[in-house]
Specification:
The chain is an alpha+beta fold and 81 residues long. It is 41% helix and 17% strand. The chain has a single domain, classed as Arc Repressor Mutant, subunit A. The strands form two sheets. The chain has a three-stranded antiparallel beta sheet with strand order 1-3-2. α2 packs across α3. It is globular, with a radius of gyration of 13 Å.
Length: 81
């Protein structure tokens, strides 16, 4: 689980038009983490990405929503919630 991750009330995909690709800044804001951490997760292959050419990385809202759901846990920092 990503520490400090904030949850949103509306699904990510409903707040963006279907199939929209998000930039790292958008993802960082949604997750409540620094943009550099988003790139780190993407580089490690932990975060699903879409390559746009050789230089750009984007994130599909639906895939990001699924990734967030997979990260959910009832334990935070070793303590049960």
């Amino acid at each position: 689980m990503v520490r400090g991750m904030q949850t949103t009330t509306a699904p990510i995909s409903s707040s963006h038009r279907p199939g929209r690709l998000l930039a790292a800044n958008d993802v960082a804001e949604l997750l409540g983490v620094p943009r550099t951490f988003v790139y780190t997760l993407a580089r490690r292959g932990d975060l699903p990405t879409v390559r746009v050419g050789e230089r750009y990385v984007r994130f599909r809202a639906e895939a990001l929503e699924q990734w967030i759901a997979a990260q959910e846990t009832t334990r935070v920092g070793g303590l049960a919630c």
